[in-house]
Amino acid sequence: MTTDTLEVVSRHRCFGGTQFFYKHHSRAIGLPMGFSVFVPPQAEQGRVPVLFYLAGLTCTEETFMIKAGAQRRAAELGLMLVTPDTSPRGAGVPGEDDDWDFGTGAGFYLDATQEPWSKHYRMESYVTQELFEIATTQLQGDAARAGIFGHSMGGHGALVLAQRHRNLYRSVSAFAPIAAPMQCPWGEKAFTGYLGDDRSAWAQYDASELMAASSCPYPEGILIDQGLADNFLENQLNPEAFEAACKKAGQPLTLRRHEGYDHGYYFISTFMDDHLAFHAKQL
Asked: Which of 127, 182, 251, 259 is the most buried (most CB within 10 A)?
């Protein structure tokens, strides 16, 4: 399998479009990577808007496509959906499978700078360069109409990559994001391991820190949904920090808090249509 060859693992007819699962050898990661794509029926007529979804801790490229219930509405709106895996697999780093919140399944959508992680744990480069290029050249995505969203660790990824790569993404939203990773155990653990002890390096991957230092990067607004029965809300997510940063930056933010909803895909699927419509309007 060469670098630019996509291997179709499986394909499934779905709401008039096609659900694909791919495997390829990644230049950025240096290992085989899997990703999934839903191609809407409108792609038969030409390029379509493309929406990248970043999943959370322990998930794979399959999780969103199986659980989120996004394809029906994406087919109606003519949106192509692309989801990468959440980390390299089989990198051979000692201890990479020891914890569920660090290493395998927990790449945090950054480029690691610390050995031994820096060789393969390069998820920022993978998502923003390699996967973006594949989706908009080899597949039917329109590079000029791309958005990004995600959940939990992937919500962190979406908010950070949207700000770090403003030239790529025209829209951004999130479900229950890790909104201030420098202030929570998940973020402190991941950033220390991947980026070292220099907190100024951490700030480059903290959505709230980036937003507080900017000036309204997304004038058409950002959408976030957060369940109030989320068991990670109090100690890990810190949506109020991002809310305050947006206020400082003059960034329009719709942060919706929902009584009774938790952290999982029952919550995500409930509000998925709203997010797809939000992106479709901007793309």
From this structure: 127
